[in-house]
Amino acid sequence: FPLFLQVTCNCFTISNGEMQDVGVGLYPSMSLLNHSCDPNCVIIFEGYQLLLRSVRDIQIGEELTISYIESLMPTSERQKQLMRQYCFECDCLLCQNQEKDAEKLAGEEHAWKEVKDAVNEVRYPKSKEEWERILARCQNLLSSNTGHLPDTNIYKLKMLDCAMDACINLECWEEALYYGRRTLGPYRQYYPGFHPLRAVQLMRVGKLQYSQDMFPQALETLKQAYNIMKVTHGADHSLMQALMEIKEQCEAIMRTQ
């Protein structure tokens, strides 16, 4: 039991190129890093290799920090998760001022609670039929809550992401782009500066624009992803190489037009 607790407290969630969880691993030296909801470093994976990347200038003697949890959650939810899993309260600046909490929960409470429950019920589907059911549920909730919830509400944002994933898996490219573009404003608001999740989202939207021959828009979106990813991932990361390849293809097509 003590070993289980040590693993639970010190393990890292291993993610793939699109920041989707694929497993957990122990990296003892990285477990020495402390938490901040507004960290100066991020953890990126290349396969099973863990990379620590700084996302802003760090002063001599300044502590390196990472976020143990998803920073998108409102302060109260972050504090609950940190206490439940890591047994401490965070007193970082983001937790002290709570400036974005009102925007994260904007809209009518009954509406976002319904959307929150629906999002929490989603498990990764294994068949086309399951994806179709999830998309239908997302479409119904997004339609019924039009005017009740802004896209900046974090639970509606998660539902837009879910609808986008469903459309991609069902090869509904135009609808996937519709949902994806709606997420970019909230992503910019909640993941300012250099954040890998925003870079990946921009890349996904850029690829959808490229697939629908929207080359000028795709190039602009991919450039934004590139400017973030060169900091969060580095030039040698496989995802960065894939981004550069599609960006160069887009540039070549535009030169011939």
Spans of at least 5 consecutive residues whose pLDDT stays below 50 are none
What Rg do the Cα atoms give?
19 Å
CATH architecture of the largest domain: Beta Complex
Helix and strand composition category:
mainly alpha
The CATH class of the largest domain: Mainly Beta
Structural domain count: 3
Number of helices: 11
Shape by Cα distribution: globular
| Average pLDDT over all residues | 92
GO cellular component, one term: nucleus
Pfam families: SET
Domain SET: 1-69
EC number: 2.1.1.354
Write out key terms for the chains shown.
257 residues; mainly alpha; Beta-clip-like; Serine Threonine Protein Phosphatase 5, Tetratricopeptide repeat; 3 domains; 11 helices; 57% helix
Give an account of the 3D structure.
The structure is a single chain. This protein is mostly helical and 257 residues long. It folds into 3 domains: 1-98, Beta Complex (Beta-clip-like), CATH 2.170.270.10; 104-190, Alpha Horseshoe (Serine Threonine Protein Phosphatase 5, Tetratricopeptide repeat), CATH 1.25.40; 194-256, Tetratricopeptide repeat domain (Serine Threonine Protein Phosphatase 5, Tetratricopeptide repeat, Alpha Horseshoe), CATH 1.25.40.10. The protein is 57% helix and 10% strand. The chain is built from 11 helices and 6 strands. It has helices at 2-10, 75-86, 93-97, 101-104, 109-121, 128-144, 154-169, 173-190, 196-211, 215-232, 238-256, and strands spanning 12-15, 21-25, 34-35, 41-46, 49-54, 65-66. The strands form 3 sheets. Strands 1-2 form a two-stranded antiparallel ribbon. A hairpin with a 2-residue loop joins strand 4 and strand 5. The protein is globular and about 55 Å long. The mean pLDDT is 92.
